[in-house]
Automatic annotation (TrEMBL):
The keyword Hydrolase applies. Keywords: Hydrolase. Gene3D superfamilies: alpha/beta hydrolase. SUPFAM superfamilies: alpha/beta-Hydrolases. GO terms for molecular function: hydrolase activity. This is Alpha/beta fold hydrolase. It comes from Pendulispora brunnea. Residues 1-14 have a biased composition (Polar residues). Residues 52-166 form the Serine aminopeptidase S33 domain. Residues 1-20 are annotated as: Disordered. InterPro entries: AB_hydrolase_fold, Hydrolase_4, UCP037442_abhydr. Pfam families: Hydrolase_4.
Length: 308
Protein backbone atom coordinates (compact mmCIF):
# COMPACT_ATOMS: atom_id res chain seq x y z
CA UNK A 1 0.00 0.00 0.00
CA UNK A 2 1.15 3.52 -0.81
CA UNK A 3 2.19 5.60 2.18
CA UNK A 4 2.82 9.34 2.33
CA UNK A 5 4.30 10.93 5.42
CA UNK A 6 5.83 14.32 5.98
CA UNK A 7 8.04 15.83 8.63
CA UNK A 8 5.20 17.90 10.06
CA UNK A 9 2.93 14.84 10.44
CA UNK A 10 0.13 16.21 8.28
CA UNK A 11 -1.71 13.86 5.95
CA UNK A 12 -1.41 14.57 2.24
CA UNK A 13 -2.97 13.11 -0.88
CA UNK A 14 -1.07 12.12 -3.98
CA UNK A 15 -2.65 13.47 -7.19
CA UNK A 16 -3.89 10.67 -9.41
CA UNK A 17 -3.11 12.42 -12.68
CA UNK A 18 -0.35 14.72 -13.90
CA UNK A 19 -0.64 18.11 -15.49
CA UNK A 20 1.74 20.32 -17.40
CA UNK A 21 1.76 21.99 -20.78
CA UNK A 22 2.17 20.18 -24.07
CA UNK A 23 5.72 20.68 -25.33
CA UNK A 24 7.41 19.84 -28.62
CA UNK A 25 10.22 17.29 -28.77
CA UNK A 26 13.35 18.31 -26.86
CA UNK A 27 16.87 18.48 -28.26
CA UNK A 28 19.94 17.01 -26.57
CA UNK A 29 23.51 18.31 -26.76
CA UNK A 30 26.55 16.53 -25.32
CA UNK A 31 29.46 18.58 -24.05
CA UNK A 32 32.21 18.72 -21.46
CA UNK A 33 31.94 20.93 -18.37
CA UNK A 34 35.07 21.70 -16.37
CA UNK A 35 35.12 20.92 -12.64
CA UNK A 36 36.75 23.35 -10.23
CA UNK A 37 40.15 21.69 -10.76
CA UNK A 38 39.80 21.63 -14.57
CA UNK A 39 38.75 17.99 -14.89
CA UNK A 40 36.31 17.55 -17.79
CA UNK A 41 32.93 16.06 -16.95
CA UNK A 42 30.72 14.62 -19.69
CA UNK A 43 27.26 16.17 -19.65
CA UNK A 44 24.05 15.92 -21.65
CA UNK A 45 21.85 19.01 -21.92
CA UNK A 46 18.18 18.56 -22.78
CA UNK A 47 16.68 21.78 -24.12
CA UNK A 48 12.93 22.43 -24.41
CA UNK A 49 11.80 23.54 -27.85
CA UNK A 50 9.85 26.38 -26.23
CA UNK A 51 10.85 28.79 -23.51
CA UNK A 52 11.93 26.87 -20.41
CA UNK A 53 9.89 27.26 -17.22
CA UNK A 54 12.39 25.63 -14.89
CA UNK A 55 15.60 23.62 -14.70
CA UNK A 56 16.41 20.14 -13.39
CA UNK A 57 19.70 18.70 -12.18
CA UNK A 58 19.41 14.92 -12.59
CA UNK A 59 22.07 13.08 -10.56
CA UNK A 60 22.89 9.40 -11.07
CA UNK A 61 23.10 6.43 -8.80
CA UNK A 62 26.41 4.68 -8.15
CA UNK A 63 28.10 3.46 -11.35
CA UNK A 64 25.00 4.15 -13.46
CA UNK A 65 25.79 5.89 -16.78
CA UNK A 66 23.91 9.08 -17.52
CA UNK A 67 22.40 7.55 -20.65
CA UNK A 68 20.26 5.36 -18.39
CA UNK A 69 18.27 8.50 -17.56
CA UNK A 70 17.87 9.67 -21.16
CA UNK A 71 14.15 8.88 -21.52
CA UNK A 72 13.28 10.60 -18.25
CA UNK A 73 15.43 13.64 -19.08
CA UNK A 74 13.77 13.98 -22.48
CA UNK A 75 10.36 13.74 -20.82
CA UNK A 76 11.32 16.57 -18.45
CA UNK A 77 12.54 18.73 -21.33
CA UNK A 78 9.39 18.00 -23.32
CA UNK A 79 7.49 19.56 -20.42
CA UNK A 80 9.57 22.71 -20.50
CA UNK A 81 12.44 21.97 -18.11
CA UNK A 82 16.05 22.52 -19.09
CA UNK A 83 17.64 19.29 -17.81
CA UNK A 84 21.24 18.20 -17.39
CA UNK A 85 22.69 14.74 -16.71
CA UNK A 86 26.36 13.83 -16.32
CA UNK A 87 28.79 11.02 -15.61
CA UNK A 88 30.69 11.16 -12.33
CA UNK A 89 34.45 11.61 -12.52
CA UNK A 90 36.14 8.38 -13.61
CA UNK A 91 32.94 6.79 -14.92
CA UNK A 92 31.27 6.59 -18.32
CA UNK A 93 32.33 9.37 -20.67
CA UNK A 94 33.96 11.22 -17.75
CA UNK A 95 36.80 8.69 -17.66
CA UNK A 96 39.94 10.00 -19.34
CA UNK A 97 42.84 7.59 -19.42
CA UNK A 98 43.21 4.68 -17.00
CA UNK A 99 40.77 4.27 -14.14
CA UNK A 100 43.58 3.35 -11.72
CA UNK A 101 45.00 6.84 -12.29
CA UNK A 102 41.80 8.66 -11.29
CA UNK A 103 42.14 10.41 -7.93
CA UNK A 104 38.62 10.90 -6.58
CA UNK A 105 36.38 10.04 -3.66
CA UNK A 106 32.69 10.67 -3.03
CA UNK A 107 33.33 14.21 -1.83
CA UNK A 108 35.13 14.87 -5.12
CA UNK A 109 32.00 13.70 -6.89
CA UNK A 110 29.92 16.06 -4.73
CA UNK A 111 32.16 19.01 -5.63
CA UNK A 112 31.92 18.03 -9.30
CA UNK A 113 28.14 17.97 -8.94
CA UNK A 114 28.36 21.52 -7.62
CA UNK A 115 30.20 22.52 -10.81
CA UNK A 116 27.42 21.03 -12.93
CA UNK A 117 24.83 22.82 -10.79
CA UNK A 118 26.66 26.12 -11.30
CA UNK A 119 26.67 25.59 -15.08
CA UNK A 120 22.95 24.78 -14.99
CA UNK A 121 22.11 27.88 -12.95
CA UNK A 122 24.08 30.03 -15.37
CA UNK A 123 22.05 28.72 -18.31
CA UNK A 124 18.76 28.74 -16.41
CA UNK A 125 19.05 32.52 -15.88
CA UNK A 126 17.05 32.73 -12.68
CA UNK A 127 14.59 29.90 -13.34
CA UNK A 128 13.80 27.65 -10.35
CA UNK A 129 16.08 24.62 -10.11
CA UNK A 130 14.91 21.18 -8.97
CA UNK A 131 17.42 18.52 -7.91
CA UNK A 132 16.29 14.97 -8.75
CA UNK A 133 18.71 12.42 -7.33
CA UNK A 134 18.64 8.67 -7.85
CA UNK A 135 20.09 6.59 -4.99
CA UNK A 136 23.58 8.06 -4.39
CA UNK A 137 22.46 11.21 -6.21
CA UNK A 138 20.16 11.96 -3.26
CA UNK A 139 22.93 11.40 -0.71
CA UNK A 140 25.38 13.92 -2.16
CA UNK A 141 23.13 16.99 -1.96
CA UNK A 142 24.55 18.41 1.32
CA UNK A 143 28.13 18.22 0.07
CA UNK A 144 27.62 19.90 -3.32
CA UNK A 145 28.59 23.57 -3.41
CA UNK A 146 25.61 25.73 -4.31
CA UNK A 147 22.91 23.35 -3.09
CA UNK A 148 21.37 26.29 -1.21
CA UNK A 149 20.22 27.68 -4.58
CA UNK A 150 18.02 24.64 -5.30
CA UNK A 151 14.27 25.22 -4.85
CA UNK A 152 13.19 21.59 -4.40
CA UNK A 153 14.94 18.25 -3.88
CA UNK A 154 13.44 14.95 -5.03
CA UNK A 155 15.18 11.70 -4.10
CA UNK A 156 14.35 8.44 -5.86
CA UNK A 157 15.19 5.09 -4.20
CA UNK A 158 17.65 6.85 -1.88
CA UNK A 159 18.78 5.64 1.53
CA UNK A 160 21.85 4.77 3.53
CA UNK A 161 24.06 1.97 2.31
CA UNK A 162 24.70 0.24 5.65
CA UNK A 163 24.78 -3.36 4.56
CA UNK A 164 22.97 -4.90 7.54
CA UNK A 165 19.99 -2.64 6.81
CA UNK A 166 19.92 -3.46 3.09
CA UNK A 167 16.90 -5.23 1.65
CA UNK A 168 17.15 -9.01 1.92
CA UNK A 169 18.07 -9.70 -1.75
CA UNK A 170 21.16 -7.49 -1.38
CA UNK A 171 22.19 -8.02 2.25
CA UNK A 172 24.17 -11.25 1.95
CA UNK A 173 25.85 -10.22 -1.26
CA UNK A 174 26.77 -6.84 0.22
CA UNK A 175 28.36 -8.48 3.25
CA UNK A 176 30.52 -10.61 0.95
CA UNK A 177 31.39 -7.58 -1.18
CA UNK A 178 32.53 -5.35 1.67
CA UNK A 179 34.27 -7.96 3.82
CA UNK A 180 35.86 -10.35 1.35
CA UNK A 181 36.03 -8.85 -2.14
CA UNK A 182 36.70 -5.12 -2.09
CA UNK A 183 39.88 -4.98 0.07
CA UNK A 184 41.99 -7.47 -1.95
CA UNK A 185 40.64 -6.29 -5.30
CA UNK A 186 41.46 -2.63 -4.61
CA UNK A 187 44.91 -3.58 -3.37
CA UNK A 188 45.60 -5.69 -6.47
CA UNK A 189 43.98 -3.60 -9.24
CA UNK A 190 44.21 -0.04 -7.93
CA UNK A 191 40.54 0.46 -8.79
CA UNK A 192 37.34 -1.58 -8.59
CA UNK A 193 36.71 -3.63 -11.78
CA UNK A 194 33.04 -4.12 -11.03
CA UNK A 195 32.01 -4.91 -14.60
CA UNK A 196 34.27 -7.96 -14.70
CA UNK A 197 33.01 -9.06 -11.29
CA UNK A 198 29.38 -8.31 -12.15
CA UNK A 199 29.20 -6.20 -9.00
CA UNK A 200 28.20 -2.50 -8.97
CA UNK A 201 30.43 -1.27 -11.83
CA UNK A 202 33.91 0.07 -12.51
CA UNK A 203 34.84 2.69 -9.91
CA UNK A 204 37.89 4.71 -8.85
CA UNK A 205 39.84 3.37 -5.88
CA UNK A 206 39.05 6.36 -3.65
CA UNK A 207 35.33 6.20 -4.36
CA UNK A 208 35.02 2.48 -3.63
CA UNK A 209 37.23 2.60 -0.54
CA UNK A 210 35.25 5.47 0.98
CA UNK A 211 31.90 3.95 0.06
CA UNK A 212 32.99 0.71 1.74
CA UNK A 213 33.78 2.59 4.95
CA UNK A 214 30.35 4.22 4.86
CA UNK A 215 28.51 0.97 4.13
CA UNK A 216 30.29 -0.85 6.95
CA UNK A 217 29.15 1.66 9.60
CA UNK A 218 25.66 1.47 11.19
CA UNK A 219 25.35 5.26 10.90
CA UNK A 220 26.62 5.20 7.33
CA UNK A 221 28.49 8.30 6.22
CA UNK A 222 27.84 10.42 9.32
CA UNK A 223 29.27 7.63 11.45
CA UNK A 224 32.49 7.82 9.45
CA UNK A 225 32.75 11.52 8.63
CA UNK A 226 31.43 12.80 11.96
CA UNK A 227 29.64 15.96 13.06
CA UNK A 228 30.72 17.94 10.01
CA UNK A 229 28.67 15.63 7.80
CA UNK A 230 25.66 15.93 10.14
CA UNK A 231 25.91 19.70 9.96
CA UNK A 232 26.01 19.56 6.18
CA UNK A 233 22.76 17.59 6.10
CA UNK A 234 21.19 20.01 8.60
CA UNK A 235 22.19 22.96 6.37
CA UNK A 236 19.87 21.83 3.56
CA UNK A 237 16.72 23.94 3.66
CA UNK A 238 15.01 23.28 0.31
CA UNK A 239 11.79 21.24 0.61
CA UNK A 240 12.53 17.56 0.05
CA UNK A 241 10.38 14.74 -1.31
CA UNK A 242 11.57 11.15 -0.98
CA UNK A 243 10.06 8.54 -3.31
CA UNK A 244 10.86 4.94 -2.44
CA UNK A 245 9.46 1.52 -3.33
CA UNK A 246 8.49 -1.47 -1.25
CA UNK A 247 10.04 -3.89 -3.77
CA UNK A 248 13.42 -2.14 -3.91
CA UNK A 249 15.91 -5.01 -3.91
CA UNK A 250 18.67 -2.80 -2.43
CA UNK A 251 17.17 -0.12 -0.18
CA UNK A 252 14.95 -1.18 2.71
CA UNK A 253 12.46 1.17 4.32
CA UNK A 254 14.91 1.47 7.21
CA UNK A 255 17.73 2.58 4.88
CA UNK A 256 15.44 5.25 3.47
CA UNK A 257 14.16 6.53 6.80
CA UNK A 258 17.60 6.80 8.42
CA UNK A 259 19.11 8.75 5.53
CA UNK A 260 16.29 11.26 5.24
CA UNK A 261 16.11 11.79 8.99
CA UNK A 262 19.50 13.49 8.63
CA UNK A 263 17.83 16.31 6.65
CA UNK A 264 16.73 18.06 9.84
CA UNK A 265 16.62 21.59 8.46
CA UNK A 266 13.89 21.18 5.88
CA UNK A 267 10.32 19.99 5.40
CA UNK A 268 10.36 16.36 4.25
CA UNK A 269 7.62 14.42 2.53
CA UNK A 270 8.16 10.66 2.41
CA UNK A 271 6.30 8.78 -0.32
CA UNK A 272 6.57 4.97 -0.19
CA UNK A 273 4.93 3.15 -3.05
CA UNK A 274 4.10 -0.48 -3.76
CA UNK A 275 4.05 -1.44 -7.45
CA UNK A 276 0.42 -2.53 -7.17
CA UNK A 277 -0.58 0.99 -6.10
CA UNK A 278 0.01 2.13 -9.68
CA UNK A 279 -0.87 -1.10 -11.47
CA UNK A 280 2.71 -2.26 -12.03
CA UNK A 281 4.14 -5.73 -11.38
CA UNK A 282 7.59 -4.39 -10.49
CA UNK A 283 9.52 -1.15 -9.91
CA UNK A 284 12.57 -2.04 -7.82
CA UNK A 285 15.67 0.09 -7.38
CA UNK A 286 16.10 1.00 -11.04
CA UNK A 287 12.63 0.77 -12.57
CA UNK A 288 11.44 4.34 -11.99
CA UNK A 289 13.56 5.71 -14.86
CA UNK A 290 12.73 3.07 -17.42
CA UNK A 291 11.03 4.05 -20.63
CA UNK A 292 7.31 3.41 -20.33
CA UNK A 293 6.92 4.69 -16.76
CA UNK A 294 5.53 8.05 -17.89
CA UNK A 295 1.89 7.45 -17.02
CA UNK A 296 2.27 5.18 -13.99
CA UNK A 297 5.04 7.11 -12.24
CA UNK A 298 6.37 10.26 -13.88
CA UNK A 299 3.08 12.06 -14.50
CA UNK A 300 1.66 10.90 -11.18
CA UNK A 301 4.64 11.59 -8.91
CA UNK A 302 6.91 14.16 -10.55
CA UNK A 303 4.61 16.61 -12.34
CA UNK A 304 3.01 17.85 -9.08
CA UNK A 305 6.46 18.58 -7.64
CA UNK A 306 7.74 20.70 -10.54
CA UNK A 307 7.17 24.45 -10.89
CA UNK A 308 3.96 25.16 -12.80
Amino acid sequence: MMSIQNSESRSTHLPRTGGGASWAMATCEREMVRAEDGYELATSWYYPERLARGAVLLTSGMAIPQLYYDAFARWLADRGFLTVTFDYRGTGASLHGKLRDVRADLFTWARDTGSILAALRQRAKGLPVTWIGHSLGGQLVPFAPGHEHVQHIVTIATGTGYWRHNARPTRLRAGLLWHAIVPPVLATCGYFPGKRLNMVGDLPHGVMAQWRRWCMHPEYLVGVEGDTARQCFASVTAPLTSISFTDDEMMSGRNTEILHALYTGTHRQMVRLAPGDVGLPRIGHFGFFRRGMKDALWNRLIVPLLPS
